[in-house]
Design brief:
Layout (H helix, E strand, L loop, with lengths): L6 H16 L4 H17 L12 E2 L10 E6 L12 H14 L8 E3 L9 H11 L6 E3 L3 H4 L5 H7 L4 E5 L2 E5 L16 H9 L12 H13 L7 E5 L17 H8 L5 E5 L7 E4 L2 E5 L34 E7 L5 E7 L5 E3 L1 H5 L8 E2 L6
Parallel strand pairs: 2-3, 3-4, 6-7, 7-8, 8-10
Antiparallel strand pairs: 1-14, 2-11, 5-6, 9-10, 11-12, 12-13
Bound molecules: fe (ii) ion (2 copies).
The site of one fe (ii) ion has 7 residues, from helix 5.
């Protein structure tokens, strides 16, 4: 079977074709081509970093009551309290949001990157704050939690980074998707240097994120016990597709992992790491990115999955802007309506019917907020 091309690969192919076309043109034709190209980009729903589109917000209430809900908090990136209190205030705000949900969610998914540099005091601080949640917490690991001591302390606090559980007829899997091939031993990097290199996402000295052969073997065995009609929800820190390699918005073995998920009728992947509204669908797999409580990352310059409901550049004068938390409503068919609770803005709901129809149905209505 032919593998789908990554967004990044398509971008480079289009760009190469564009430059190839340019060679044969005089200046007037070039201007026409440039205009035409912008039109194509707009028609495809892709945007350049200078032309953000309207973001869409939640419209009517859900047509049918969800089977159950769970909330999420992700990418808190805590430093020691003395170094940075802003991110501490942000995670506290998220905990308060979730505790005020009525009814309470069945559980809360923490999406990874609890700490900034994997330090014990950062992880301890996060663990202590998350204890304030009323609902039970499911933990996922991020690269910022892992690469100082290769997950030793995180695992002591929270247990194995890869596990599965069944809840009300849905099979849930939490993956450790930020493994990297050993780039440190041969280069003699200290644990602190290793952590800093991975924390700098565009630092080319590191390897790329992957679930890795052992993780994939574990996943294969875990899924072998599950009926193919059972709804499947997978949590991963990095997106389980190839979005943008240079920033490690990427899972190197995404194609192999997707192949393991493909036999299932309804699959949803919920990921952290990208700190932005992000929606994608590849075959039967729906992908949703989670918001960060700490900061929003810009969208990758090479283009976006076309289903993405885009958020605007955050207001630099508001520490909370572009950040938030959210909720997943599990529907009868096992797919999710994904609610982005953007702080101080209208929430955005991306419905399963929207992703399943490739954007033809239930497109979220444009917001009236002028900055979007
Ligand atoms: Fe993060
Ligand atoms: Fe991350």
């Amino acid at each position: 079977m032919k593998m789908p091309k990554s967004i990044e690969t398509k971008h480079y192919e289009e760009r190469a074709a564009f430059y190839e076309g340019l060679k044969r043109l005089d200046r007037r034709s070039f201007m026409r081509l440039a205009g035409l190209s912008a039109g194509i980009v707009a028609a495809k729903g892709l945007v350049t970093p200078h032309s953000f589109q309207l973001v869409e917000v939640a419209g009517a209430a859900p047509a049918s009551k969800p089977k159950f809900t769970f909330a999420y908090i992700s990418d808190t990136h805590l430093y020691k309290k003395e170094l940075n209190d802003r991110f501490v205030r942000s995670i506290l705000r998220a905990v308060d949001d979730v505790n005020r949900l009525d009814p309470q969610p069945d559980f809360v998914l923490f999406g990874g990157d609890l700490a900034q540099l994997g330090k014990r005091e950062e992880l301890d601080l996060g663990a202590q704050i998350l204890k304030g949640l009323k609902a039970p917490v499911k933990m996922m690991v991020g690269e910022h939690d892992w690469f100082l001591d290769m997950g030793e302390y995180w695992q002591k606090l929270f247990g194995p980074p890869q596990y599965s559980f069944d809840h009300k007829g849905v099979h849930f899997v939490t993956l450790m998707s930020v493994q990297e091939k050993d780039f440190w031993t041969a280069n003699g990097y200290t644990p602190e240097e290793r952590m800093q290199i991975v924390a700098g996402l565009d630092d080319g000295r590191q390897s790329r994120f992957e679930v890795g052969p052992q993780g994939r073997e574990w996943l294969k065995n875990d899924l072998a016990k599950v009926d193919k009609k059972t709804p499947l929800v997978v949590f991963s820190h990095s997106p389980l597709y190839k979005y943008f390699r240079n920033w490690n918005f990427w899972t190197d073995d995404a194609d192999e992992v997707q192949a393991l998920l493909r036999p299932f009728a309804n699959v949803t992947v919920i990921h952290g790491h990208t700190h932005q509204l992000l929606t994608n669908r590849i075959g039967n797999i729906h992908f949703h990115g989670m918001l960060s409580t700490a900061w929003p990352w810009p969208y990758a310059p090479e283009g976006l999955p076309t289903l993405t409901v885009q958020q605007n550049r955050a207001d630099p004068f508001s520490a909370f802007d572009g950040c938030g938390d959210g909720r997943m409503d599990l529907l009868e068919n096992g797919l999710v309506d994904k609610l982005y609770n953007l702080w101080d803005r209208d929430p955005v709901t991306v419905r399963a019917t929207y992703t399943a129809s490739n954007g033809k149905e239930d497109r979220p209505a444009p917001t009236r907020l002028p900055s979007y």
